[in-house]
């Protein structure tokens, strides 16, 4: 145990509360974490929605160890290393339908989002439509913490301390509605029409000023908001009508979370860019990436003079050798163990177990898709988030890691999970919920 916790300024954490009562995770294996005194904690959140193959998988560990001893780093500007190209080729092949042909690397979901937004604006400019600069996000969207990401994002506390943010940003309404959709299994029926708000925004500003729309296919961080039936399809149709790029932020939904490789495949809707991170390396080495649809890369190549740099953007650690090696090994594990199929196979059992919580104290909604779920608790009047935090602490004390945003519990276990773990998870949760004041 560290003796002094003070110097570390923890992100997105109530520091004083945490430091008075620290919850430390000191080791991990497969679907468990272990506290410093070796108490197992069942990982109900795949770390932070990222450890999809389970923890400390030997193949991934060995690949990283081998890579760091062989080629630790190579500059990504004007130089390259084989692993970055091999991984990009493999990633575009993973995308269904052959719609995407290039991958741009960053180091996180936030960087993937900033990259995608910049590519969108620059894409229109190099095509001679430089007036298309406006970006449209969504209320309750989370797109990381860069200025672009918090601007298109729709979470008030993530925005309000940070000045005027990016100009020229609008937001679609979120799709969360308990009155119409509480306790829906899978995609809700109500809410498809909310996509038509895009028409209103287009009318207001004129299509010729709008670069892109960005949404999470399933909004994760703000409480697992499942898109209504036909909603994403309608966004696609409207974007096509007006020449607006559609970006799916698949930082959470990518790499098997819904039981398909990507949400794009699951919903059968093809956006123009897809941002990913997290599961791409199983959480081991930071990495983010943007997939671009056929034609986008070529547009940049065609517009720039020969020998000129086509896109003035990138990171010192874009396509880092360790991240590429980790990603290759991670994709091997996903494939060899059929983990996306396992998620798909378990989804209905997962749904049954989740909805067995209906009727327990404070539970006002249950939502699920693939291997992701939310349990929404009624807030204590005047004290939003207090009940959620109490629940998180009690789960941790019982041996289960959950994630809470306010009073919503989010669950997203490693995809290697088995029925017995799901049983344990919901048993522990039910026990905690029954006692929760
Ligand atoms: N987009 C989405 C949809 C996310 O869920 C997250 C992280 N939870 C991000 C972007 C940001 O990723 P990172 O924290 O790696 O910057």
UniProtKB/TrEMBL annotation:
GO terms for biological process: biotin biosynthetic process. CDD domains: OAT_like. It comes from the Bacteria. GO terms for molecular function: adenosylmethionine-8-amino-7-oxononanoate transaminase activity; pyridoxal phosphate binding. PROSITE patterns: AA_TRANSFER_CLASS_3. Keywords: Aminotransferase, Pyridoxal phosphate, Transferase. Belongs to the class-III pyridoxal-phosphate-dependent aminotransferase family. PANTHER family: ADENOSYLMETHIONINE-8-AMINO-7-OXONONANOATE AMINOTRANSFERASE, BETA-ALANINE--PYRUVATE AMINOTRANSFERASE. This is Adenosylmethionine-8-amino-7-oxononanoate aminotransferase. It comes from Allocoleopsis franciscana PCC 7113.
